[in-house]
Recover the amino acids of this structure.
């Protein structure tokens, strides 16, 4: 049976999260007068990203709630024990700089346009609906997706099969009728495949090295991949 719907990851898939995070944190640290305390802007940004990965993993595992993972990111980054309201205020000052740098990848709108008539579209994100629904609206693409599901509200995160099955149920489709596109080979592509969907790894950095996964390096490769279907054939097609 052909693929009837595409479910999308957001951050670093259709939205340049890494670019916005880097620009936002650099501007925030400059405004806070903190750049000098980290050796260099590059070192500060590397530490922020490491703390983000660390506490995001704790959120995904259920160890921390949504707000607490943000507070723990801030506390571990600044290296001191802030009260909840202090950590929240610090994060929201950063957030203003981060949001000022929001942008879609240049290939996002063309591929959404190209596939608008042939496939249904939805989002499954390991974030919160409050964050991601607002992000899609600010970026002007919320109306492209008939459903937006997020881990914070679902209570389960990718790569758990239940997360992928939830969005299939929302679309009233069987998993084999749905393709999932994301930038993480394991969380997104492998997780989708193990849940019965067609998983597609968007490898923008051209890392390669995962021959068992269906892989593209640009979104403009997606329409021809879907047109070929047959569960996408050999995973090396677009290497």
């Amino acid at each position: 049976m052909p693929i009837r719907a595409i479910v999308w990851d957001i951050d670093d898939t259709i939205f340049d999260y890494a670019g916005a995070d880097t620009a936002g944190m650099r501007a925030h640290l400059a405004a806070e007068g903190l750049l000098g305390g980290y050796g260099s802007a590059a070192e500060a940004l590397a530490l922020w990203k490491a703390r983000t990965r660390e506490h995001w993993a704790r959120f995904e595992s259920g160890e921390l709630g949504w707000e607490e993972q943000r507070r723990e990111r801030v506390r571990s980054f600044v290296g001191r024990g802030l009260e909840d309201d202090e950590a929240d205020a610090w994060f929201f000052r950063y957030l203003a700089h981060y949001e000022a740098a929001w942008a879609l990848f240049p290939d996002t709108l063309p591929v959404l346009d190209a596939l608008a008539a042939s496939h249904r579209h939805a989002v499954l994100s390991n974030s919160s609906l409050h964050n991601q629904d607002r992000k899609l609206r600010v970026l002007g693409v919320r109306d492209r997706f008939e459903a937006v599901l997020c881990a914070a509200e679902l209570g389960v995160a990718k790569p758990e099969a239940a997360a992928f099955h939830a969005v299939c149920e929302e679309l009233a489709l069987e998993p084999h009728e749905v393709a999932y596109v994301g930038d993480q080979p394991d969380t997104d592509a492998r997780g989708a495949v193990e849940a019965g969907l067609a998983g597609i790894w968007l490898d923008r950095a051209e890392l390669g090295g995962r021959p068992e996964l269906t892989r593209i390096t640009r979104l403009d490769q997606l329409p021809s991949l879907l047109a070929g279907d047959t569960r996408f054939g050999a995973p090396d097609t677009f290497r």
Observations:
- The radius of gyration is 18 Å.
- The mean pLDDT is 91.
